[in-house]
Amino acid sequence: MRTRFLIVDDSELVRKSLRTVLQANPDWEICGEAPDGETGVQLFKELHPNIVILDFQMPGINGIEAARRMSEFAPAVPIVLFTQHASTDLERHAKEAGIRSVVSKTNAFPMVGMIEALLGPAESGPAVAEQGDSEKSQAE
Amino acid sequence: MREQEKVNILMVDDQPGKLITYEAILGELNENLIKARSGKEALDHLLKTDIAVVLMDVSMPELDGFELADMIRQHPRFQKVAIIFISAVHLTDIDRLNAYQRGAVDYIAVPIVPELLRAKVRVFADLHRKTRQLEMLNRDLRSLSARLLAMQDEERRRIARDLHDGIGPLIAALSMNNGMLAQQTKKLGPEVAEVLQQNNELVEQLSKETRTISHLLHPPLLDEIGLLPAIKMFAEGFAERSSVKVAVELSPDIGRLPPNVEISIFRIVQECLTNVYRHSGSKTAQIKISHTPDKLLSVQVRDEGKGMTGTNGASTTPGSSHGVGLSGMRERLRELGGTLEIQSGKNGTTVSAAVPVNKTMVKSL
């Protein structure tokens, strides 16, 4: 079973680059993409991704608010905030909203390693169980 | 107001004949002439109309000219009205002094020389007209400067947004592409790997510079999570760029404020820190934001620098100028109904701003 990613970012260019980077790993796939927070939350509920890569500053609700709504629905799914505005204060707000990790868009190198760490020890396949089923949402 | 706009001249005398004489003399000034037969009637007119010049007889039954002058001067709205006394009696120096002490601008003895009276009244009518014009221009300037500040904020927000939406993704994509390439370094020769490494550093530098410009133009956290995180982030960046040690003390119960209050306070703090860096020579700065018991938001920025010239430890007067920065702060605070106070001496400068904040409005945001 491959790990399914949801990408939420208002820039088509960033989404495209993320696709390229993430799909370089044969065990990873993009299950959905959203250009804003509201659509992201909706897709999150419909698609049950294993992990979310989320932008911060977007039209409509911002990444922190989107993460809060996603975490309420399925708290076990790791969310990575991928932002141009990484700072200690933003990180604090992000953690409160259920975000596991904040990655600076301007220095995206550590991202892949960070995602691997978030997905858990299993080298292949998702460490996080399929989300959405109530009995499985306790995973991790 | 047009140059030719008429002003009101109030003539007060208990004798109708004299009023008619004044009217004949002043007619060619082409202003509005208003007649009053008693002090009481004169007060009625003053309350209802904007009067430029009061021409009045000293001796009148009931309320005499001096008493009327006293009453006029006690009212703050009428303190600038020019009062000219006319008298056939009471012509001693003591009488004249009495009149001037009551704020008269002139004391004319009967018999009147028509040309002289006309010339004197004309001077004060013109002065009043010019004062009114100045006041209107001042109001226009204030509203213009408020609009300019708002437009400047909006423009900065727009440019920051353009940088974020336009250049930000390009840098992110470059960074990710470089990351992909970096995973293939084994396949690349050492020279190519070296160039790739340099590219990484360039991208990082590019991103840092863009980020600084964008954050100085408009703090990204301000709109999204509020004033306090935006100030903390700005203070962190400022300390890093300037080597000024910044202590930040923010009362956590402040929460979200109306957007115009948040941006104005942010700009005031930004301006103060810029001044600390550029002018004070201080190695430290302290930012303190808290609620006061009387429902004001208090913003204080303090340094230990050499102080501002011209203030000498005293609070600066509203008219004193220390460049666009301080007057900009004053304008912003005036718009919010707030105040600005500056204490400066050889041990440093403290800028204190107070802004009225409606707590119920804040909570509902």
Description:
The complex is a heterodimer of chains A (140) and B (365). Chain A has 140 residues and is of the alpha/beta class. Chain A has helices at residues 12-23, 37-47, 63-73, 88-96, 111-119, and strands at 3-8, 28-34, 51-54, 79-83, 101-104. Chain A has a single domain (3-120), classed as Rossmann fold, CATH 3.40.50. Chain A is built from five helices and five strands, in the order βαβαβαβαβα. In chain A, strand 3, helix 3 (63-73) and strand 4 (79-83) form a beta-alpha-beta unit. In chain A, helix 2 (37-47) packs parallel to helix 3. Chain B has 365 residues and is α/β, with parallel strands linked by helices. In chain B, 55% of the residues lie in helices and 18% in strands. Chain B is built from eleven helices and ten strands. Chain B has a five-stranded parallel beta sheet with strand order 2-1-3-4-5, sandwiched between helices. In chain B, strands 6-7-8-10-9 form a five-stranded mixed beta sheet, covered by helices on one side. In chain B, a hairpin with a 2-residue loop joins strand 9 and strand 10. Chain B is elongated, with a radius of gyration of 32 Å. The chains are: A alpha/beta (140), B alpha/beta (365). The A-B interface holds A 10-11, 13-14, 16-18, 20-21, 24, 56-57, 62, 64, 82, 84-85, 87-90, 93, 105-109, 111-112 and B 164-165, 168-173, 175-180, 182-183, 200, 203-204, 207-208, 211, 220-221, 224-225, 229, 232-233, 236.
